[in-house]
């Protein structure tokens, strides 16, 4: 077995297989001469909606915008509250704060790392207006429980699907459960673009129209502005590349699942491994384990040519930028995760031999 360095991620290697098709698309868009909201954006929106099983998809420029624009469609008031998992990536929380709303942290279930539905209702107040579940690491949240709470209290649901392209529960894919599904195509994601790109999925035509207008200066017909909008359009070139990669998303997800099954089978039980359940099709955007000596383990792996990452090193309530609003919301479970979690290599370019090398090294720790 070779003992070369196992990288955590390498976007050049990951995308190499698609380079020729990307070059062809680049030439087509270049020569077509339409660089903003052209046919490639429309085509990708249709294809991605079809892939997710939703009626609509609207491409936007980046993740913060996608999450923010989704919240804007309900005309909430300043100070209204949005429930969000205490261990999410900071973007979910920033979308709430940048809408002048208040993030209310709910702790995750330590078995799944996703928001614990049994802890949501105790945080609901007359000001609660929405829930933003995050399908962390590529596993769907318990959307049946979340949606029944949302229905009972008349709350909007925005799924943060940034890590969950193609993840499903009993055959229904992410992006179908809430009023909106918000997908990141950040280059490292399972469906990664060649730059910043996002999309919102939904099953309601009014929502679709609202987002299409909001992303384009509040205008449906050029130079006629109906609402105060933004400039948050999905880039035409990026949409063309996304259509290429979408054809391989099933293969990417399946490859990552096959690597995850090697980890699940052979990693020794000293490491807390991700939970699996037959109703859930997990897509392992991230394959994490937990260990009480996480930092030592990470150092040891690095010395032995295995690169890892931490998602995420600091819990949102401990972030300097969030102190003023989250300091009064202790999140011991999130902090425990942030102190013990380690993300192992699981890219599309990794082979089972690479993973075997990681496992062999880890099992000697
Ligand atoms: C759960 C979650 N939400 C939001 C984002 C923000 O995505 P982007 O960086 O594409 O804006 C990320 C990015 O990693 C994420 O993981």
Question: How many separate helices?
Answer: 13
**Which residue ranges are poorly predicted, with pLDDT under 50 across at least 5 consecutive positions?**
none
Distance between the termini: 19 Å
By DSSP, the count of extended strands is 14
User: What's the average pLDDT?
Assistant: 97
The secondary structure category is alpha/beta
Core attributes:
365 residues; alpha/beta; 3-stranded antiparallel sheet; 37% helix; binds pyridoxal-5'-phosphate
Explain the overall architecture.
The chain is an alpha/beta fold and 365 residues long. Helix content is 37%, strand content 15%. The protein contains 13 helices and 14 strands. The strands form four sheets. A seven-stranded mixed β-sheet has the order 1-9-8-5-4-2-3, sandwiched between helices. Strands 7-6-12 form a three-stranded antiparallel β-sheet, with no helix packed on it. The protein starts with 10 loop residues before the first helix and ends with a helix. The model has no long low-confidence stretch (mean pLDDT 97). Bound molecules: pyridoxal-5'-phosphate. The site of pyridoxal-5'-phosphate has 13 residues, from helix 4 and helix 5.
Helix and strand topology:
Blueprint: H1 11-15, H2 19-32, H3 39-52, E1 56-60, H4 63-72, E2 81-85, H5 90-97, E3 102-106, E4 128-131, H6 143-152, E5 156-160, E6 168-169, E7 172-173, E8 180-184, E9 198-202, H7 205-214, E10 219-221, E11 224-225, H8 236-246, H9 249-266, E12 280-281, E13 287-290, H10 294-303, H11 323-326, H12 332-340, E14 341-344, H13 352-363
Parallel strand pairs: 2-3, 2-4, 4-5, 5-8
Antiparallel strand pairs: 1-9, 6-7, 6-12, 8-9, 10-11, 13-14
Helix pairs in contact: 2-8, 3-8, 4-5, 9-13
This protein binds pyridoxal-5'-phosphate.
